[in-house]
Amino acid sequence: MIKISASKNFYTYLILFFGALGIRILFNSLFPYLHDWDERFHALVAKNMMTHPFTPMLRADPVLPYDEISWTDGHIWRHKQPLFLWQMALSMKIFGVNLFALRLPSAIMGALSVVFIFRIGILFKNKFAGLIAALLFTFSSYQLELTNGVIGMDHNDVAFGFYILASFWCYFEYKASQKKYWIFLIGLFAGCAILNKWLVGLLIFAVWGIELLLQHKKHLRLKHFYPLLQSFIICCIVFIPWQIYILNQFPVLSRYEFNYNTKHLTESVEGMQTNFWYYFQIWHFQYSYYLLPFIAIAFWKLKNKIINTGWISLLFPIIIVYLFFTVITKSKGISYVFIAAPFIFLLVGFGVTQLFIWIKENFNIRWNNTFEVLIILFLIIAVFKPLTNQKYYFKKGGHYLNVENKEAKKYNTAIYKELDSILPENYVLLNCKSFEDIEAMFWSNQNVYQFYPDEENYFQLKQEGYKIAVFVARSNYELPDYIANDPDVLILDKQLK
What we know:
By secondary structure, the protein is mainly alpha-helical. Helices cover 62% and strands 3% of the residues. The chain contains 24 helices and four strands.
């Protein structure tokens, strides 16, 4: 089997990190526009957080009536927890308002996840399994598409998965060393996970508690739970203050969003799937069917020694996540179970190593290392899906949740970037393409609407001193007479696609 010496671990970490980071930055650059769902909304809120970090806003200056609870056209935006938005806002503070800066935090978190996965393999005394898992995560097309915004919930899901993985990495470090600072870090990262996507971030404590019950079932004492309780308190200190703050500052919207989150358990929201088998049906989309034989090998080798080897800590996150989102929750978001990906890849890595050991013990193959490299390359290709990537990244259109006309998006984005140089101050721009007003406000400092107001609100807007500009009328975007015949209206000679 291919060997990695302990003295080279540091260089392996560096190669994995910068290799994964470079791949993600490259893939991020392949889409020079904001994706429809949900990247453009996250982007605008993050941009507004650059100047108002504790007031999450979609529309910073809503001059027309709006629905207070709408997360696609409202003012205060409470649809997601704030940490991933703060990260993007900080990145844009440093590097400017652009797509590189917007997507950079996700690229960094993806690259760090690769390092964590490799490190977990080392902690489980199976460095080669950790390396295989790290490589699979590096080239996972699904993870890359979350990172560059192709798949909806994008950067939010990347951050959520990262902080959950970080909490588990710290837990495994704590088990290996018993050093107390890992208890603090477990709680810190679990709290950060909740500050991205709510209470599933507590996953580490469920696994930790179950493992304690299994290890000490005959002599269980309260003291065995002290480290877990200490870490949980740290977690609460991290995420509860924001919840208190938003309930105080934005009580109506916050209560609505908390209730809306609960609805995911009992009904389908936003058209999400409810099919019990949904996550098994999309396995090939998130991973590959070619991984399944190696998972079967891993289970076969571990069947009688899961608890003693500690691998139960990697199996339970998978089991809990799939059970919770398959059996308990009615709404099945496409990426909900992908937080289990690092643990699934580690299981695959273990299965691959066991296969290689069996071959070495039973067959005298001179080209053993070549065979191993070919198997690993095959699995990387299976999760990378190069034919699918070639079809969607380098030809017209997007895929999965974002069915976009790539050329139209690029053309319209170029127009939105010019708005500040075209429009004088104090203008309100109307008749933008549906939902692309969000993109226009990200790329400019203009107040843009995808629709036009009724006649009463239109003239009220003018009485308040606002000047009106409109995108030229086009199919499905015709203007009413009170706007089309208004001599004060500035018509932009820009035909959106």
